[in-house]
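Bug: token stream looks shifted between consecutive jobs. Job 1:
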Amino acid sequence: MANPALRLPENIPGDFFVDSTCIDCDACRQIAPETFTDAGDASIVYRQPASESEAKRALMALVACPTASIGTTEHHDAHIGIDAFPAQISDNVYFCGFTAESSFGAWSYLIVRPQSEGGNVLVDSPRFATHLARKIELMGGVRTMFLTHRDDVADHRRFADRFNCERVMHADDGAARLGIEHVLRGTESFELDQDLIAIPVPGHTRGHVVLFYRRKFLFTGDHLAWSPNRETLTAFRSACWYS
């Protein structure tokens, strides 16, 4: 929980606030844009939740925050935010929440599939939390963990131990060193199964790989991002460390 003594002065007065430990990962602004906004190099509360649904989204942001930089001055049932994850995005794709500081707040996703179709896929690793692991277990566990690149592996070992799943990652991002079971090599696309295509995109990191699911959902890791200025997906030059 955030420290009220470190509350950023840019926060609007009231219940929810962000403190100075914020790393500006953008998670809260994506989860609850009606409450949080950008203040340069940090997020702040610019509008207090005005309804139960807005309060729930704000609590989801609090739970997802990788640095516990969001706090409240009033008592709230934390399980409102905790139990909301994994949160359905579209069809059988869910956002895991519980982002990790070691991944700079990167998002992790769960693809829920019957065992006959290959079982559930965890795309990148969230922060390990017992509540989240139990929920994922109830949703069928994890058969495959796809790690897009070395920056977003977070607590992959703990999830792999919990679910005894196979991890997939490219050799050029240190897969062998991490003990990955299925190591990808080269620059050609690779079909993991009939619905999953791994596509190497060595820009952000040398071994960065995106995952194309059902030719509908593209899990990009840090390869692509939304540009609010251009209003389109783009690859930021400042993030293309390898190429």
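Job 2, same session, no restart:
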Amino acid sequence: MSDSGQPNYATVLYGVEDRVATVTLNRPEVRNALSFQLRSDIVAGLRRAEQDPNVSLVLIKGAGTSFCSGYDLRVSGLVEERRKHEGWVSDDNLEDWTDQFSRGCVRDWLTLWDLLKPVVAQVHGNSLAGGLEIMSMADIVFVADDARLGYPPMRGLSTPDAAVFPWKMSMAHAKYIQLTGNSITGKQAAEWGWVAKSFPAEDLEAEVGRELHVLRNIDPSILAANKMSLNHAYEVMGMKTHLNQSWVWHFLSNWARARSGSGEGVAQDRTMRDALEWMNRAANEVDLI
């Protein structure tokens, strides 16, 4: 605990200024790769902001050169780390077959969706895999024109942990992203309607500040009502039902399909770079940046 009685976080920076709570992913040495601790700290920061009467909205961003490079595959396979994560079921009869890693990812990122206060994401550098899921679950997203957005593991490891793509873009674009695993720029993501706006990288911080100035001056109760009204429409269309079944396809693609599991073994036993090289070996790399 800090001197003020508020919790300290091992992997995020948390601060409040002018009714905006900022949650900054703070593992810049690994481009903010999502360890279990970082995931827990993000969720804790969001819930803390929701309880604070001096906060109207939350800004989530990343320290260093990237927003988030994805899940930290060096720790994703460690049983002891998994079992410490909130909500994990360690009963041997249930632990493996429901693909709890995927279920846990969906549970964590639905925190952004369910939060009564709007969540704004400010994205620069790389936003890949799990980082892309966080970004896509935020209510409003602003990105740098040259940001790299993609989900390379879909080329060889599995389907996404959280199946966000059909809900964030057109069918044509969703199929292009998920089937190819290619990355696109932040500027193109804005043109696709995946994110709200993109800005030149050097202007991103200032432009997001301008956008937040409008939001912070709106009454939090009407912000909450408008967010929940919009969310309800997507939930009626089945968004949460679809997301909560992400683990089924993640499990099947990881363990039941032909030649499954080999890519995950590379990812867990070696480095993320090795894993991506393994996945791209048979693919014609045509990333759009």
